[in-house]
């Protein structure tokens, strides 16, 4: 039984950090895992062709501590997607996700991502082919529609086809994607959100795992969506304000995340873990900035947070920078005196 089937059977909810190009690399996921033991973490979207022909170890390797972690694939050729899944199997991912939501020009030129929503029959064929070769759940992340499509008309049909093809879960970004005229950034902000439609899709498909994504900025909003949906996915909010992830496990246990406040000792433990991890990255040929760039958003609302960001943004990028920079950054934050600020930050 997959973890999605278990979630449906038990009523347990799933919180996920969305796949984000240039952001959710292995170093980011390692940090996020220290903040939440239960969040489902996604890779950046990796194109099937890159896995087949490119540097597989760099693209696919990750720390065992990141589990559960899902590989998000981009592509529109069933054979290539299947081959990429066979290659990725050796790396031990917990899920394979198909991207049917990215609106960038580069993705469109490869005829995958959000433009695939125009051809749900083909997407269903891709899911069927992927299921045949995958030993882990195969999922789809989509939009509610693209361009002039009417979401209330196209989304039910799209979901029915994905369900018929055997998709284990469907994560729905509650916005249209405009493939012409809007940038990827604008596509995350300009098209209006339609949470009601996504909620209705869940009510009409009670036996299918459906998760919601798009515009959710804090755990208070996330918890509200989970009264209807099986899962909730945060992207930019979880990255830019990573400290909110410290409340995720409590939320999934039914507790009030605003009552879970990380102690000074807890932050010092995180500091020490990130120092040890950064030392490993540097020893393997990486740079301190490869780790610390993902830590900049940790202390929003804390006294000293601005200095923390300054140290990591300016000092950690210098050639030869060592982990003493992390120590200095943490020392700039009033960890003991900011409990109330953290409660406000987590709850929204």
Detail the topology: elements first, then pairings:
Layout: H1 3-10, E1 14-17, H2 26-35, E2 40-47, H3 48-53, H4 56-60, E3 69-74, H5 78-88, E4 95-100, H6 105-109, H7 120-133, E5 138-146, H8 151-165, E6 169-177, H9 184-187, H10 195-204, E7 210-213, H11 219-225, E8 231-234, H12 236-240, H13 248-252, H14 264-283, H15 288-292, H16 305-315, H17 324-331, H18 339-347
Walkthrough of the structure:
With 348 residues, this protein is α/β, with parallel strands linked by helices. It has 18 helices and eight strands. The chain has helices spanning 3-10, 26-35, 48-53, 56-60, 78-88, 105-109, 120-133, 151-165, 184-187, 195-204, 219-225, 236-240, 248-252, 264-283, 288-292, 305-315, 324-331, 339-347, and strands at residues 14-17, 40-47, 69-74, 95-100, 138-146, 169-177, 210-213, 231-234. It has an eight-stranded parallel β-barrel with strand order 1-2-3-4-5-6-7-8, surrounded by six helices. Strand 3, helix 5 (78-88) and strand 4 (95-100) form a beta-alpha-beta unit. Helix 5 packs parallel to helix 7, helix 7 (120-133) packs parallel to helix 8 (151-165) and helix 16 packs antiparallel against helix 17 (324-331). The longest helix has 20 residues, at 264-283. The model has no long low-confidence stretch (mean pLDDT 92).
């Amino acid at each position: 039984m997959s973890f999605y089937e278990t979630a449906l059977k038990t009523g347990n909810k799933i919180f996920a950090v969305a796949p984000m190009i240039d952001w959710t690399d292995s170093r980011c996921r390692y940090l996020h895992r220290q903040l939440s033991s239960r969040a489902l973490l996604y890779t950046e979207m990796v194109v099937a062709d890159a896995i087949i022909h490119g540097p597989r170890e760099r693209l696919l390797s990750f720390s065992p501590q990141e589990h559960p972690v899902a590989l998000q694939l981009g592509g529109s050729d069933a054979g290539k997607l299947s081959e990429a899944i066979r290659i990725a199997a050796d790396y031990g991912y917990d899920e394979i996700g198909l991207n049917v939501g990215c609106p960038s020009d580069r993705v469109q030129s490869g005829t995958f991502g959000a433009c695939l929503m125009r051809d749900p029959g083909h997407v269903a064929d891709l899911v069927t082919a992927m299921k045949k070769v995958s030993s882990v759940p195969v999922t789809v992340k989509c939009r509610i529609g693209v361009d002039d499509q009417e979401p209330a008309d196209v989304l039910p049909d799209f979901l029915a086809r994905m369900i018929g093809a055997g998709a284990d879960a469907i994560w729905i970004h509650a916005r249209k994607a405009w493939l012409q005229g809007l940038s990827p950034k604008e596509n995350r902000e300009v098209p209006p959100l339609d949470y009601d439609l996504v909620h209705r899709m869940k009510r009409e498909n009670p036996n299918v795992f459906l998760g919601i994504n798009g515009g959710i900025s804090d755990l208070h909003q996330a918890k509200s969506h989970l009264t209807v949906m099986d899962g909730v996915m945060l992207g930019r909010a979880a990255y830019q304000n990573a400290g909110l992830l410290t409340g995720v496990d409590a939320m999934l246990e039914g507790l009030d995340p605003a009552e879970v406040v990380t102690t000074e000792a807890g932050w010092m433990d995180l500091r020490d873990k990130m120092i040890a991890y950064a030392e490993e990255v540097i020893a393997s040929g990486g740079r301190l900035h490869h780790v610390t760039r993902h830590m900049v958003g940790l202390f929003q609302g804390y006294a000293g947070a601005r200095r923390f960001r300054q140290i990591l943004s300016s000092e950690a990028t210098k050639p030869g920078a060592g982990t003493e920079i992390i120590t200095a950054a943490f020392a700039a934050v009033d960890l003991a005196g900011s409990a109330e600020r953290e409660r406000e930050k987590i709850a929204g």
